[in-house]
Amino acid sequence: MPIQVGLVVPPAAAPAPVPAAPTAALVLRQIAAAAGPWFPAQFAAESGVPRDSLDEPLSELRLAGLVLATDWVRGVGQGFALTPAGKITAADAGALERLSQGVPAAAVAAQVAPAEDEGAAEAAAAVAPAAGAEDGVSRPPVVVPALLMANAVWFFICAVWGIRWGLTLSRSLSEGHPEVLHRFGAVNGLDLLAGEWWRLFTCCFVHVGALHLLGNLFALAMMGPLAELLWGRWRLLLIYTISGLAGSALAMALEPNALLAGASGAIWGVQMSLFVWLYAFRDRLPTDVAADWFRRLMVVFLLNGAVSFLPNVSWEGHLGGGLAGLLTAGLLNAARLGDRPRRLGAWLLLTMLPALCVAGVAGAMGAEGLPGWRKLRQQLAAERSVAEGGERLTAAHETYVRQIGPRLVRLMPAGPNSITRVGGTFLNLLPEERELLALRRSPDATPQQRAAARAKVLALKAVAEELAAATPREPVGAPPLDEQFARMGRFATAQAAALEWLLVLDGSGSGPARSLVWAAWAKTRLESHQLWLELTK
Questions:
Q1: pLDDT (tens digit, 9 = 90+) per residue, 46-73?
Q2: 405-425: per-residue pLDDT in tens?
Q3: How far is the C-alpha of 531 from the C-alpha of 495, rounded, in Å?
Q4: Between β-strands 77-82 and 67-73, what pairing exists: parallel, antiparallel or unpaired?
Q5: What would the pLDDT profile of 194-233 be if each residue is shown by its tens digit?
Q6: Average pLDDT, rounded, for the chain
Q7: Alpha carbons 464 and 500: distance in angstroms, whole number
Q8: Residue 122 in contact with residue 206, Cβ under 8 Å?
Q9: Rounded to a whole number, what is the largest CA-CA distance in the chain?
Q10: What angle (nearest 5°) sits at the alpha carbon of residue 192, between those of residues 179 and 320?
Q11: How many angstroms separate the CA atoms of 117 and 495, rounded?
């Protein structure tokens, strides 16, 4: 840390008379005047002031980053020395005057710290709330009450909606309706496969029952105000948001089949950010205060850790949120306390964290080794296949109603009276076929009658061809229906061929050619007749 040299420290060998309650300004002067480490126990014995009266000004100076503890020496106790910022402050008569007038040491240190010692000034400002500086005390928490209200209101809306869906009041409050929870923001793996990534954040405001809600609100109300006081409003909101997103991301990456809801991941991030703050500024806190804070945080950490392994509790979400809270808090400290390159790097990583969370889930979705996502992909493929099959069945039904059915009825034989003997075979001929055959054998038939009969057969042939074209060629997903459509197609094709041979037969003369055409028509017509019998059995 750069230190200005050439500063003249005011003579402090003969300080003013020690008052009954030593101030921070007096203690700073005493430490500056000491040739080496300054020992409060030794000073108390020499000046006659109570040793305990030195703890408060020493704590204020340490939190402001003006003094630091040195090695403990047997017989004289804990020693203290000036930091670079403390030397600058002790050399500034105006700063000492403001300190004597009761201005908080953190505020004084922030004013006198040089630009090149910006990190020290930032550190002093960071611990000012914990020191009781006016800037920290005068700003009540705003983010935490807003988050508490948002979670409570969202739960109330879900509970009311659950009652509208038919749940009793007690059940709606105790467990809620899964479909309602999902509609209002809960997330599962199928949602992410469908592209609904926003649910990774909205699920942090959905809770499964009043007990789940109260547990999370209690934890946030216990730790949140202190975290907001130490980190500031927007930093706490950033920690909460990134931690909630990361907790949801890890939970979905490892357990995509669950319906995820709750603010636990975000709360774990807030909890772990307190550990980061305590570690970063442990040297600026009194030893007993730091130890007490650490013990309290460890108790909360162990209790929440035990809860993480209860049934239906997502330990993955807690782990992801806690790790993200550690990382986000560390980057925030680097962004405000580091040099310019470190600050830029920290801000870059902070802006990338949400994208990295989403990218991590996307990577898990495509990983072959994760059974949860493999099972979901198989389920989704099966559902898609069923949906596509349903669509094909619907399309096939519409095709049958509009195109196949009417044409099939048109090709349907009239009944027993339409049976005609052709050679040695009895065929159920259509009226148009019988008419053309009868006119062909009748010597009294006029050309106009035969032309009209041929036109009817041509129209019938067109109907058969249209039926063959309209019959689905691809399977529709129902084997019996697929087989029936295949029979219809074969029958329509054979019927069109038989009608074509009938027209050829009508135009043929006598002799061997006529016999061949007759045989071809009879064979084809017999085939279509048999296919019709198969179709109607």
A1: 888 888 888 888 877 877 778 887 777 7
A2: 888 888 887 665 566 666 666
A3: 9
A4: antiparallel
A5: 889 999 999 999 999 899 999 999 999 988 998 998 898 9
A6: 81
A7: 11
A8: no
A9: 151
A10: 95
A11: 98
Q: For 425, phi and psi rounded to 5 degrees?
A: -120, 140
CA 166, CA 170: separation in Å to the nearest integer?
12
CA separation (Å) from 310 to 181, 250, 305, 314, 372?
21, 18, 10, 9, 20
How many whole angstroms separate alpha carbon 191 and alpha carbon 186? 9
The count of other CB atoms within 10 Å of the CB of residue 205 is 23
* Positions of E strands within 410-466: 419-422, 425-428
At 409, the amino acid letter reads V
Percent of the chain surpassing pLDDT 70: 86
If one counts every other C-beta atom within 10 angstroms of the C-beta of residue 395, the result is 12
Q: List the one residue out of 375, 274, 284 whose CA is nearest residue 326.
A: 274
Question: Contact, 224 vs 236, CB < 8 A?
Answer: yes
The closest alpha carbon to 344, from 336, 116, 328, belongs to: 336
Strand partners, 419: 428
Q: What is the pTM of this model?
A: 0.60
DSSP string, 328-381: HHHHHHHHHHS-HHHHHHHHHHHHHHHHHHHHHHHHHHH-TT-HHHHHHHHHHH
CA 30 from chain centre, in angstroms, equals 57
Alpha-carbon 76 to chain mean position: 58
φ/ψ (deg, to 5) at 322? -65, -45
List all residues 6 or more positions away from 281 whose beta carbon is below 8 Å from its beta carbon: 123, 126, 127, 130
Q: Are 124 and 106 in contact (CB under 8 A)?
A: yes
Residue 494, CA atoms < 13 Å, CB-side half-sphere: 19
Is 281 exposed, middle or buried (CB count within 10 Å of its CB: 0-12, 13-18, 19+)? buried
Task: Report d(CA 160, CA 173) in Å as an integer.
Answer: 9
Q: What are 187's strand-pairing partners? A: 260
Residue 45 neighbours by CB distance under 10 Å: 12
Residues 375, 438 contacting (CB under 8 angstroms): no
The phi, psi pair for 241, rounded to 5°, reads -70, -50
Q: What is the per-residue DSSP string for 372-385?
A: HHHHHHHHHHHHHH
Residue 15 has pLDDT above 50, yes or no: no
In a 13 Å sphere around the CA of 40, the CA atoms on its Cβ side amount to 24
